[in-house]
Amino acid sequence: MSKETGALAQIQRQIQWNRLIAVVEEQAQTMIRTAFSTTVREAGDLSAGIFDLEGRMLAQAVTGTPGHVNSMAESVGHFLKKFPAHVMKPGDHYITNDPWLATGHLHDLTVVTPAFRNGRIVGLFANTAHIIDIGGLGMGPEGRSVFEEGLYIPIVKCFDRNVPNETFFDFIRAGSRTPVELEGDIYSLCACNDAGAKRLVEMMDEFAMDSLDELGGYIFDASTRATLAEIAKLPRDTYRAEIKSDGYEAPVTLKAAMTIHDDRIVVNFAGTSGLSNRGINVPPAYCRAYACFGIKCVVAPEVPNNWASLLPFQMEIPEGCILNAPHPYPVSVRHVVGQLLPDLMMGCLHQAVPERVNAEGSSALWNPPLRGGSQVSGQAAETEDFEIITFNSGGTGARPTKDGLDGTAFPSGVRTMPVEATENVAPVIFWQKQLRPDSAGAGRTRGGFGQVMEIGAKGDAEFAVNAIFDRVANPPKGRDGGGEGAAGWVGLNDPNGTVLRTKGFQIVPKGKHLLLKLPGGGGMGDPKERDPDLVKRDVEDGLVSLEAARAVYGFKSG
């Protein structure tokens, strides 16, 4: 092959790669446009991707969360074990919410769909979405086994050659408090895979591609080489870190020993706390998903996320620890612990490449599941029945050269849901939603600010919250002399400041509102080194009190 021919082939493969990204992004956007649940439509709590016939992820949509994407990357192989590619037919759609075969809890539905060109299967599309209700106790930590947490769907066909499996749909409608939304979301997941398959065939026709093998080989080879090149730049050693979660029955300690080798990074979680009796346990795939993401953000952020680029990151998760929950342990709110893992990984990497690592942030989402009506108050309910969840976040940790982000979800990446969207679908009122002053950890670069939220039911009726909050007893830590972010707080809006438990089902009495104070991110560096103009700006914006500015930053007004 001449140099000119080789260069043209390289350009063509890059064009094909870009087109593949466009294909999976349209796949994800189709789901967002057609979803019934606000968690998908408004927050983008989803993932979408394309896989080869061996179940290896070729590409993921830009839209989506790492917990979904990286655990979904493992799940397609499980689908293929039950339904090998050669038995799949056009119009088939397969589904599961098995926490150990998919993305970690029953509230996530994963759908896999084959794509056919000229009667021959050429690839697989997969997606995952968080749905509002799957029955059982609802989204919360109270279950003592996965069987209490909702409908458990094994890997089954939900559509057979475009014909819906009516028995399947009868079961899921009967088992959910929100049957219309649940059924609609399943149709949405199937439609989004169909959209991806259609665009893939158009792309393959345009480039006269008989299969994805050659393009897949190019993607995997380039991603492997790029990832290994970045690992090679790191100092060889073993780095250790730990982080604490509020837990449920008792505080949880997460420990990691990260060893950087020439061709891989191995993380051992020995010393991590044991399993919980409640639903904060983490299935191993979800642990790998967020741990890999935390490493990749620092080590190889520019390398596309796929099967090959994830291979060099290896996890050793001891049996019996909270990050390796076996079936049938409860796992409903595995994100409360799992989303702390990127901060833990950065605690290790801070010792190797401190200039590339953030301070700790609020990390775990503050997404209160709210329930009201007769299922809370009995027949005397003063409001209609509702089941809703709203996604919100505290501040992220400070960056080495920039402040942390206010009210932003890291590591999950989901969007904060507009209050209007939630009020439109449920009889709730957000009486207050604003940035929380003095919540950002001080530093040369400060953390992001948390939020204050006040929520009530219409008519100030009684309602319930299934609390799933963290970073209350263990606020986000700063780095390099930076201060802690403000701890979270959960309670009522009454004059006594009644405190609620950070986890578990609780009633907000008639006439009262739920008050949430979300954590701020930790700071980075000595606060006295902060630019006085930036301190002045925060004071003028009402985000840092004059007293705090003087005491912490040495600010001199006037």
TrEMBL record:
GO terms for biological process: glutathione metabolic process. Pfam families: Hydantoinase_B (PF02538). GO terms for cellular component: cytosol. GO terms for molecular function: 5-oxoprolinase (ATP-hydrolyzing) activity. Residues 11-527 form the Hydantoinase B/oxoprolinase domain. It comes from the Bacteria. InterPro entries: Hydantoinase_B, Oxoprolinase-like. PANTHER family: 5-OXOPROLINASE RELATED, HYPOTHETICAL 5-OXOPROLINASE (EUROFUNG)-RELATED. This is Hydantoinase B/oxoprolinase family protein. It comes from Neoroseomonas eburnea.
